[in-house]
């Protein structure tokens, strides 16, 4: 359901906002988060990953 919502929401924006949504900078931020997100999640949860305890 979330993916469908994220797919439909840009259609509700004004046409001049579409460029900012799909601009190269925004796509670059998305790509950076795709690469850095798992590393950050592992760093934050390192103790739990190592020991299995919260």
Task: Write the SSE topology.
Blueprint: H1 2-12, H2 15-21, H3 24-44, H4 46-51
Walkthrough of the structure:
With 54 residues, the chain is mainly alpha-helical. It has one domain (2-51). It has 4 helices and no strands. The protein has helices at residues 2-12, 15-21, 24-44, 46-51.
The biggest sheet amounts to: none
Q: Which structural category do the helix and sheet elements fall into?
A: mainly alpha
State the oligomer: single chain
Q: How many β-strand runs?
A: 0
Low-confidence stretches: none
Gyration radius over CA: 17 Å
The DSSP helix count reads 4
Shape: elongated
Average pLDDT for all residues: 86
The helix/strand order is: HHHH
Number of domains: 1
Instruction: Tell me what portion of residues adopts beta-strand conformation.
Output: under 5%
Indicate the percent of residues in helices: over 70%
């Amino acid at each position: 359901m979330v993916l469908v919502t994220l797919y439909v929401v840009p259609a509700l924006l004004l046409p001049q906002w579409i460029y900012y949504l799909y601009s190269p900078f925004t796509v670059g931020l998305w790509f950076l988060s795709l690469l850095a997100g798992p590393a950050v999640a592992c760093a934050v949860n390192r103790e739990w990953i190592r020991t299995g305890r919260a």
